[in-house]
Hints:
The protein has helices at residues 10-18, 22-32, 37-46, 90-107, 120-128; strands at residues 3-7, 48-56, 59-68, 75-82, 110-116, 132-139, 142-150. It is of the alpha+beta class.
Amino acid sequence: MKIEEIDTTSKHIKLLSKDLRKPDEDELVTKTGTTNIQKTLLTGFAMTDYCRSFFVDDKIAGVYGVVASLDDKNIGSPFLLCTPKIKNIKIKFLRECKDRVEEMSDRFPVLFNYIDSRNKLHLTWLKWCGFKIINEKTFNDVLFYGFLKEKKK
């Protein structure tokens, strides 16, 4: 199995939008209120400060990155969006993801965002990476959890 990780391009975002995991798609639709996934992802991609794509056997498995807060240059909003192919590399992905989160923390000492409470795979990933669930918020009648990770000084 060939695994590759590279800087994200708009082409990768378009590929991702065509094969997004259902829970990731549901989260995007609920949080943004729009069903145009590709447009939503391209708009978000344009705002990223750090964005990487990973592939399994030349097929996109996911995109992760971080977007700077408009209010505070020390805060970034991390994200992870996957296709069903993530299951093909889950062990390798888990082994390496803490280093990737650390790279995000080097850019932004405070990482904070919200996750759909229905997205069980990503909730497990967040806990594995050391994020804390700190609050709850409702978007379009769906419960989301705020998650936080602060860089140790």
